[in-house]
Amino acid sequence: MIVIYHDVGGCHSSATAANIHIGKLPADKNPTKSELLSMPTFDNISKNEKGKLLFIGTDEFGAQVYTLSRKYHPELVIPSITDMYKLTSGSLDGLFLSDTSPSVNNLMRVGGFSSRRLGLVKLGRPIVTQGTLNAYPQIIKIVNKTKEYIRKSITIPL
């Protein structure tokens, strides 16, 4: 099984969701700022990592959890991923794509743009961190929906 959390930049909402998913961040309360900032990919992926699947860890179902910065073209990137997965596995069973963009708020947009695009990390990182903490309950909901979908799709052999 493969789980891919994706969004525009790949290093805020998707990184947070993936780390909640594998248990590195709490699923029942907000983390501290230092917990968020300790994630290797939070506000910290390079330009050459954009468009690539970044492995975050393995979950309790044995699924490999990844993040993806797909920029502003999910209509191009996501079908390519699903087509390649289907070609190599014969079906889409075991592929779980989760868009974390709906959780992104204006603080995350401004802070992420300042930090990642403009390179103003000292200005942008505190803003995007606070925005992520504000969005954390919505990110938890996305992770919970993803995990519920995985649970429902797992078939237990008789």
State the gist of this model:
The protein has 158 residues and is an alpha/beta fold.
Question: Mind explaining what this structure looks like?
Answer:
- The chain is an alpha/beta fold.
- Helices cover 47% and strands 15% of the residues.
- The protein has helices spanning 13-21, 33-37, 74-89, 106-117, 121-153, and strands at residues 2-7, 53-58, 64-69, 95-99.
- α1 (13-21) packs across α5 and α4 crosses α5.
| Shape call | globular
The helix fraction, in percent, is 40-55%
Low-confidence stretches: none
What is the spatial order of strands in the main beta sheet? 2-3-1-4
Strand content: 5-15%
- Termini separation (Å)? 20 Å
| DSSP strand count | 4
Using the CA coordinates, give the radius of gyration.
15 Å
Give the count of helical stretches: 5
Topology:
Layout: E1 2-7, H1 13-21, H2 33-37, E2 53-58, E3 64-69, H3 74-89, E4 95-99, H4 106-117, H5 121-153
Helix pairs in contact: 1-5, 4-5
Give me some keywords for this one:
single chain, 158 residues, alpha/beta, four-stranded mixed β-sheet
